[in-house]
Specification:
The protein is an alpha/beta fold and about 190 residues long. The protein contains 3 helices and 10 strands. The chain has an 8-stranded mixed β-sheet, covered by helices on one side.
Amino acid sequence: MQARIRPIRSRRQLISGVGAALLFAPSVLRAEPLAPVRRNASSFRTHDWQDHFDRLGKGIIIADTNSRALQQWTADGEMFLYPTSVPITDELTRRGYTEIVLKDPEPDWTPTPSMRERDPSLPAYMPPGPDNPLGVRSLHLTWQYYRVHGTHDTRKIGRRSSSGCIGLYNEHIIEVYNRTPVGTQVKLI
């Protein structure tokens, strides 16, 4: 025998149904507060590394500027996915193949000449530390001024907010940094 579902035809039926549900589910009224939710996540379009590279080598990073996600594969084929910040405009976005040439465990920051031109109020230099725009770790690419790095400003993740770099939450860049040897292949798409 199939159960028959009766449609709600009046406001009274709806309210009485909600009231009955609350009587039989009082835990809804005493729900524990939820942990803070980050609401600036990206769409996480995934890629197959074989579509972009011939071999895994030391590992692969693909940063997708449209879906604002970074995928990392280790040399043994394990894959990780992270939300990112991406460049503000297409003019600031460099795309193509590069690789990791330097791992910086305590990045300092010097704004590029074009950044200082756009915003003269930027400091000329910022030492490593909690307010540093490069966060707690930085991976230098073969392209001058371009990095995959952390950020102290978590509002940037999932948004167009950088001047050319790919930004990650600080806890995520630590994970990526620890798994990434110099020579890791990188593609920005």
